[in-house]
Amino acid sequence: MRSVAVVGIGKTAFGAFPDRDLRSLAVEAGEKCLADAHVTPSKVEAFYLGNFAGPSFVGQNHLAPYIAGAMGITGVPCTRFEAACASSGSAFYHAVASVAAGLNDVVLVSGVEKMTSQTTPRVTEILAAAGDTAGEVRVGATFPALFAMIARRHMYQYGTTREQMAAVAVKNHANGAKNPLAHMRKVVTMEQALAGKPIAEPLTVYDCSLISDGAAAVLIAPLERAAEFTDKPVRVLGVAQRSDHVALDAKEDITTFRAVRTAAEKAYKMAGVSANDIQFAELHDCFTIAEIVAAEDLGFVKKGEGGPYALEGRTCLRGERPVNTSGGLKSKGHPVGATGVGQICDVAMQIRGEAGERQLERNALGLAENLGGSGATAVVTILSRA
Amino acid sequence: MKTGIVYTETVVHAPPEQFAADAPYQLAIVSLEGGGRETVRIAGERVQIGDAVEFAEERNSIPFFRKR
Fold it and tell me: Nearest 10 degrees: CA dihedral of A148, A323, A347, A108?
């Protein structure tokens, strides 16, 4: 297997953009990425797109060639990947596999979602279709409700508190406030977070990520060719995708994401590193409890210790292992299909030393964890300085 | 009669479009006696993890359980 590198990155701002359509967002991110890697569209050998629900949100299907064509990429394989909120993480995993296998050399991987043209109840309904529509969704479960039930069980089994969950929101907003591309660049206090409007008990509006528009893209190539594109290549040291049941009630233990645990095991093994070696991470905080559970499943802390870990400040910008220096899904925003590749961009920006006032000094080895649904898909990626 | 123990629960305040009229409503995952788990609605009194519940009725093909 060949080593693979990220040789270009490009992102739009995440936010609510009533004047922008899905395609223009994806094209902006893709063109920024190609410019970053100094390549023309004709050099791209394949286009991998992550998108969760373009057909439901904006009524457009056949999205990969639709977007690629607008960038001047034609004639090559263009494919859309759908894995709920892990759609573009999954696209990235499969794109890396194709380059590692020698099938392609220069591949553009992108993620996009345009969500804000629908009302919140309609968005809630579209997102819920990533759950089991014959079971949990049919009786009235929403994604906040599914993660609320995860939170309740985690609180019951491990004593996790609302304050510990709120600490995730406070930290991620503090980071996002410093990120020029973040959706909600606003500091939130512990008092505000605890007094939020209930969405699905015990989760308040401050425990939930944002409904956003946005796109992100990376260009990948064999590591041996990386110097043709950039003087700051980022190596894909490990990447793994794993799955679990879609329905929450079919999972044996809902206080852990089995797909995250098994993807992490595989990615650590491929990278030849352990959890202790990871210096910083972008974790999938679709809800605050999800960051707490992910920190446990990735082995950053023991099972059940994710709550105190969040509250003690060990994951903040100047903590021992910063988590979500971008602001996370909570503050940066969560345009579902763009999130996985967006996280890869954010980790790469830290490694390239381009994170501005959020820049870390220990930035050589970072991890991104992208979760789909209530844990039916997980993609874990480990990136390092080349 | 289906019976079980509440494995986890939540009260939904922000419903999807189709259940807007029902909110707030309580959902629970019930560990059924005899094995397996099912996601159900709760009728009547609010329940907590560990409470014993039983099938109450079906409304619009949605199963409702209540505290025993």
Answer: 0
Decide if A139 and B27 are in contact by the 8 Å CB cutoff: yes
Q: Which amino acid is at A287?
A: F
Suggest the residue from B2, B11, B12, B48 to mutate for an interface test with chain A (most A CBs closer than 10 A).
B12
Catalytic-role residue among A33, A78, A85, A286: A85
Q: A273: which 2 tokens?
A: 């590193």
Cβ–Cβ below 8 Å for B37 and A198: no
Measured between beta carbons, the chain A residues lying within 8 angstroms of B59 are none
Which residues of B make CB contacts under 8 Å with A? Answer: 7-20, 22, 25, 27, 29, 37-41, 49, 61-63
pLDDT tens by residue, B11-50: 999 998 889 999 999 999 999 999 999 999 999 999 999 9
Q: Taking each helix axis from N to C terminus, what angle separates A120-128 and A143-158, rounded to the nearest 10 degrees? A: 70
| N residues, chain B | 68
**DSSP for residue A324:** -
DSSP, collapsed to helix, strand or coil, labels residue A357 as helix
pLDDT tens string A213-233: 999 999 999 999 999 999 999
Active site residue A334: yes
Reference B64, options B34, B35, B36, B44; nearest CA is: B44
Which pLDDT score, from 0 to 100, does residue B17 have?
85
DSSP one-letter string for A85-130: BTHHHHHHHHHHHHHHTTS-SSEEEEEEEE-TTS-HHHHHHHHHTT
On the question of pLDDT at B1 being above 90, the answer is no
| pLDDT tens-digit series, residues A304-328 | 999 999 999 999 999 999 999 999 9
Segments in chain A below pLDDT 70:
none
- Amino acid A143 reads F
Q: Which of A154, A173, A183, A334 is catalytic?
A: A334
